[in-house]
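Structure (tokenized):
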């Protein structure tokens, strides 16, 4: 699906932890944002200038009409985003559940515990390593979480991605016409 790629040398680095910026880019790509240049000029957080490599993806997640209403990403209470900070298991589970249209009312008020429990109950964490809610996640676990999320129906029963079309291709929500399981 071209959601995750290796580093410049072609290495996947499965045991390296992901940053908040990297996970946001993966989440955006999972939702069909393949080109975020239209959002590159926005500076929404003082620590994510428009020149930051992920600023377009971060802005797209907050400004693109279909994504903004989901509130998939949020900044810190002090107004920053801390893009280079490792993304935690709880943060990843929260973003994935929001991608599937779950809200605090659906999940529970205790963050991040309720989000981790809900992600586990939906099978989003199936096949991944066990983590504490504040532990950083690795690239390998992020790939597993994203794969599981793309295979899980939204709260309303819709799919983010079709399983696979007859020709072996995948359909994004923006290119989806019809699919069968």
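Design, position by position:
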């Amino acid at each position: 699906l071209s959601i995750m790629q290796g580093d410049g040398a072609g290495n996947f680095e499965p045991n390296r932890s992901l940053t908040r910026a990297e996970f946001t880019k993966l989440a955006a790509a999972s939702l069909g944002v393949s080109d975020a240049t239209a959002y590159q000029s926005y500076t929404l957080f003082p620590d994510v200038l428009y020149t930051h490599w992920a600023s377009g993806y971060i802005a797209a997640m907050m400004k693109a009409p279909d994504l903004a209403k989901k509130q998939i990403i949020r900044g810190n209470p002090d107004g920053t985003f801390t893009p280079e900070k490792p993304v935690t298991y709880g943060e990843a589970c929260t973003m994935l559940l929001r991608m599937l249209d779950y809200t605090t009312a659906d999940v529970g008020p205790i963050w991040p515990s309720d989000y981790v429990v809900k992600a586990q109950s939906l099978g989003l964490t199936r096949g991944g390593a066990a983590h504490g809610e504040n532990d950083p996640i690795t690239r390998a676990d992020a790939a597993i979480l994203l794969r599981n999320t793309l295979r899980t129906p939204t709260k309303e029963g819709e799919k983010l991605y079709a399983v696979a079309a007859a020709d072996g291709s995948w359909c994004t929500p923006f290119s989806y016409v019809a699919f069968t399981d």
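Reviewer-requested clarification: Residues 162-166, 172-181 have pLDDT under 50 and may be disordered. Residues 139-150 form the longest helix (12 residues).
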